[in-house]
Structure prediction request, 762 residues.
Amino acid sequence: MNFKQQILGLVLLLLLSASSAVFWIVNVKQVQKDEKVIQESINLKFRFKEIRVSLYKSNTQVNNDEISNNLLRIDESVENLIKSLELASREYTKEELQTIREKVQKFKYSVQKYQSSHALIKNSVAYTHSKYAKTLASHSKDMDVITLHEEIENVLFDYYSDTLNGKMDTFEEKESYSLKVRLLLLHVRQILKQYNDIKHLKVDIEGLSLEALEYSSGFITQAKMDIEEIKEINKIMFIAFVVTTVWLLLYGFSSFIRAQKDYLEIRSLKNSLQQFVDALNRSAIVSKSDPKGLITYANEKFTKVSGYSQEELIGKPHSIVRHEDMPAEVFTRLWKEIRSNKTFHALIKNKAKDGKPYYVDTHISAILDVDGNIAEYVAVRYDVTELVHKRDEALSAQKSKDKFLSTMSHELRTPLNAVIGFTELLQKSLKDPAYMTYINNISDSAQDLLRLINDILDLAKIQSGKFMIVNSQFKVEPSFTTLVERYLAQAKECEIDLSCSCKVDKDLELHGDWLRISQVVSNLLSNALKFTMKKGKVESSVFYTNGELHIRVEDTGIGMLAEDIEKVFAPFSQADDGTTRSYGGTGLGLSISKDLIEMMGGRFEVKSELNVGSIFDIYIPLIQGESKKTEELSVDKTAKYKGKVLIVEDNKTNQLMLSMMLDNFGLECELADNGQIAIDMYESGKYDLILMDENMPVMGGTEAMLKLHELYKDLVPVVVVTANVVQGDREKFLESGMDDYVPKPIDEMDLRRVLSKYLKTA
Prediction:
């Protein structure tokens, strides 16, 4: 979780906690307001009860002043109740509030009417009591006046309702009643009428009181429900408040711990960063520039290497140190890449203040602001002037080495070409067995010398990284069988049983460098024959499984110890010094073979036991090629040819050897010592083929061939015959315009191949 997310989470927690607290406080206050509704409703009910108590007292004890005061208190209680209802949690309509006013008003009207009737009765009773006491007393026997008197005083004429209603007609019928008695009866009737009205009013007042009380009780019930609901919500809010508060405390504590930890980490990172910056400033040229490329910072290393002071660099473009040798395209690419927020990397040649050039390995990157826009650029450069000089020296040395190898190859192969060529000519012409022995020894020595030269050149190319694997399609069975057959004569001479087993499909074709594979197998077969005693065995076999070409060479030779196996793969090394003294050799063959196999992605496996024999296995991953029918040029070893050949060769010995070989083939030839002489001698229709050496004085072979092509559109085939056999030379000559390539020392079959290709047979 990043810093922004932490802050956002903390703010949300604070808001939740604060809102819970505020909501809880608001609800507490609302509960108090709802409780006020309950209190005011209870007060109103109490006022109603007070009036009812006053009304239900004995009639003579009713105090109208007390009732009036209670009615005023009811008005006050109603207004307080309405005010509390307006602030209650439940929203009451104006109609609901007006209803309570109307109900109370009806109640008050009935009570006030009761008060009027009661006052009238009370006054009538008092008047009757004072005016007609004697009359009542004189008729006490007939009317039970004493009882009536008590009832009037105590129960507001309840007695009259029970007695007078049934006796009034009797009183009127009696003529003996005096006028006073009749008047008394009229007053009593009036009192009874008012009393009956009061009885009905009491019923109305009771109903209105209960209705108002019930309506008020509804407010109490609703308020209690609202209070309970608010309390439930408050519980939740309180729990939320407590939870968020506890969480805030925990979060705050953990944040404090993290902050302390982050602070320590930041201090550590700051310290590490400062050390990194210090180390960078000590070792690298560091500068910063604004989006326009003007320098805003230059470290001490920059000023030291460039010779400019910081005052001279700040505010200037980096072109202040640009060397005129640097092409403009480099800086065009620089701006294009850094403006696209890519890192630019290049080796740049700069110029110091004193004009001295220096080289820097440059890395330039953009620094973005918070909105993702480029704020500035940072350039980190390393002074590699010394490395560049050493690289140039190494390249110069490598060129010298390559030139030396090429020269050595040419100079060694040129005389060797003559030795091998004349040896082959003598082998064909001499009949004396003694001389044949000498010639064969010379031939073997020359071949050994040629192999040594090839091994040394291959080793040099491998170590310099210039050795190349050239893949092409080849048939496994005929290629392997032909390769092993070359050693049958040697095996027969050494009285060794050499066998060949091809456990692959006869039409199997693979894509790989058979030339180098055959070089490795030849080396293994040669070593196996050399280190195997007479009557021994050498078995060779080839397999193809799981996409790997597997070749095995097994012998019953001298073998070696397990700890000596690694030694045989080291250059110029053999298992022990005794092996070198007894069997000879340079110790390069297996070393080069191992390198070649590894370059092809394969591997070597060796098993050997001293005085028992050795097994060499090579595994090379090769893919199958599509079977194609190719027309192979058949070469007759005894064929004669027709035509005239121009030999362009500066070495007299090679001129003689090549002339004799061509003469044996039935061809005419003329000699040219260099390319210029060849141009002067050439005439259309005079020659059928040109055999051209490459390295010659005055004019080389390639140059002469190109000039001949300029002069003659129908130029005869030109075949380069050269000691330049470094890998890639053949392709280079063919690309330059040569029609074919024959390496030195000249192999008779290779020469016959060229002659069969371009000349007619006799």
In short: Confidence is low (pLDDT under 50) at residues 139-181, 577-587, 629-633.
